Amino acid sequence: MRASRLLSVLLLLQNRGRMTAEELAAELEVSVRTVYRDVEALSAAGVPVYADRGRTGGYQLVDGYRTRLTGLTEEEAQSLSLAGLPGAAAELGLGTVLAAAQLKLHAAMPAELRTGASKVSERFYLDVPGWHRGIESLPRLSELADAVWHTQRIKVRYERWGQRKVDRVLDPLGLILKAGNWYLAARCEGNDRTYRVSRIEELEDLGETFERPSGFDLVRYWRDWSEQFEKRMYPRVAVVRLNERARILLPFYLGAVGARALREADAEPDENGWLTMDLPVEPGEPAVGELLRFGGNLEVLEPPELRERLAEEIRKMGTRYG
């Protein structure tokens, strides 16, 4: 552990130049006293690190000194696939591993490439969760990641919709991050299923491994599952008329479903700018709430029962506000 930290100190100084003991301590999440000891150990090992005193002082390497101890560990190499998702890496328990891998990668780059890589991180940032979303509690995520990686069979207590809790024995096959939410793809009683990680309340390692199903493709599984989930969420189609403002709002209100329906519309707006098209809608009351958001910019033509339900709700609102 200490050897890894000493290498991190060396690479930080090599990549960033002069750094204070406080800056090194914050970066490595250790005490300042530990930094002092680490720098002394590096000096004793022959690394040309020296300290400048004063307000603008700090530790730095002799000009021109570069280490070639930049080999990535297995975990660090794996973590690089999450380099654009530091929050996800931290949730999976790979935050410090990712930081070490990035340090080694930067140290191995030529100076001009290292400068370019730094500019990218200074100018672009990926923030995955949507607006107005609370942060889910994920106390089991790192344990799940470990079980997925080592093909460990697990037993979980899972809260299904309606607050009904069930116990399941799972063969965890993969983890998916979708719009800030984590999902687990797992095999249960011979069937591949999807579980929302935030609903897993208890997790037990059963102490046995399983054989990963031959040919299982996580990307294809998630794509197929998402498509089926979308069909379950939007099981029926309404015929609607939309003006230009409603067409602008459609992707914001209904997300990918609305955007796709708009792309697939096979008609053109009429002389007044209204477009008639098919629109997937949720069943029951959720459809009414979604469509009322458009106000007078959208009109439902079919099915008749949905049109009447909207008209009834609008009449109630007119009475209340009239």
Automatic annotation (TrEMBL):
Pfam families: HTH_11, WCX, WYL. Keywords: Transcription, Transcription regulation. PROSITE patterns: HTH_DEOR_2, WYL. InterPro entries: CBASS_pafABC_assoc_protein (IPR051534), DeoR_HTH (IPR001034), HTH_11 (IPR013196), PafC-like (IPR028349), WCX_dom (IPR057727), WH-like_DNA-bd_sf (IPR036388), WH_DNA-bd_sf (IPR036390), WYL_dom (IPR026881). SUPFAM superfamilies: Winged helix' DNA-binding domain. GO terms for molecular function: DNA-binding transcription factor activity. Residues 2-57 form the HTH deoR-type domain. This is Transcriptional regulator. It comes from Amycolatopsis orientalis (Nocardia orientalis).
